[in-house]
Amino acid sequence: MQTATPSKRNRKLPVQALAAAVLAAAALIAVGSASAGLGPGKVSRLQASCAGDLIRGKAMIKRPGTVTLRLLWRESADSAFIVSRQRKAIHASRAGSYRFKFDVSRLNGYAYAYRVRASGGVKTKLLMAENCGPGLQVPEVPYGLLLPVSLLVALGLPLALRLRRAAVDNP
Per-residue pLDDT tens for 87-110? Predict the structure, then answer.
């Protein structure tokens, strides 16, 4: 009577599957620990400028990690800064320059000045709301409005002059 013994091929399959599972788990652990190990980043310098309803800038990050930027605004020259609800999180994987922008259209009617502050305490220079001015692009009048207005002026002006002369000549 023969006893059934598993072949070599059948024995390798579970070992290969086990090795693949261990390798996949190790990769997931390494990715999770790498992103968790970043911690808080460090900002060395913040630069910002405004045009229209946008404040744009760059954050120079010295140490990789997560940096939170907050938008501050001031109602008058004598008032304290108010922390707005707007915040931006920068997840920096390396040291370098990262861009950010804030939309201040809801604050424009009330704001006197703006400032951006990083989670480490670094701040931008004071951005005066009056210097933000209109946006970089000025909208043009659509052709649909230009044609009727130009026809009205071209035909209406001579007609108005003729009626006025007739009224002056015949009192």
Answer: 999 999 999 999 999 988 877 567
